[in-house]
Amino acid sequence: MAEENSFRNFLAEAWELKKQNEFPKGADILVVDRLERFFVSRLNCLLLDKNIIESEMYLCADYIARTLAGYAREFPSTFRAAEYLYAYLQCRQSEKSGEPIRREDYLVRAGQACFVISVFFPCLHHSRRVDERYYAEMGATFFYQYFLESGKEVAQHMAERFDELVPLTQEAIEF
Question: In this model, does residue 58 exceed pLDDT 80?
């Protein structure tokens, strides 16, 4: 019963966001803080339009919105994003603790980076001389390993539905 109510809440929120549809097509997004809401709105609208009603897809849509908004805040002004993402994933020292990055943090960042690359740079494999499926397979693997180590449900769904979520996200941001 609780799961059914949770699912109803997902659908109610998605429908409310669909009605709002805050950003007209082609409008520039000037306020980074609104990016997350924009991505959630677009992804949920697409899920509703495609009659996809599985709760894990809405959970993933929320996660993707936070991930994309987070990366948008961190992109360097040169927008050499692919290089930036690789550098970001290096086993570097944490600014606060001075300790190496935790394995769980590395796994989730690596999964997110592969997802972002798959969405925004689908042809990057050409310049890297890797197979077309490389980033999708690596991303799904990182998310699954993160799920095994952390138990986070959204990581399991991101791993299992990676191939469905990439084109959905591309469509949501009108690529």
Answer: yes
User: Residue 56 and residue 70: Cα distance in Å, rounded?
Assistant: 21
Model pTM above 0.85: no
Phi, psi of 173, rounded to the nearest 5 degrees = -100, 10
Task: Judge whether residue 170 has pLDDT over 80.
Answer: yes
Q: How far is CA 113 from CA 4, 15, 28, 132, 168, in A?
A: 33, 29, 24, 16, 17
Overall size of the chain counted in residues: 175
The pLDDT value recorded for residue 169 is: 94
pLDDT (average), residues 76-89: 45
pLDDT at residue 75, as a whole number: 52
Residue 126 has pLDDT above 90, yes or no: no
Longest dimension (CA), the chain: 50
DSSP the chain: -HHHHHHHHHHHHHHHHHHH--S-TT-----GGGHHHHHHHHHHHHHHHTT---HHHHHHHHHHHHHHHHHHHH--TT--HHHHHHHHTS-PBPTTT-SBPPHHHHHHHHHHHHHHHHHH-TTHHHHHT--TTHHHHHHHHHHHHHHHHH--HHHHHHHHHHHHHHHHHHHHTT-
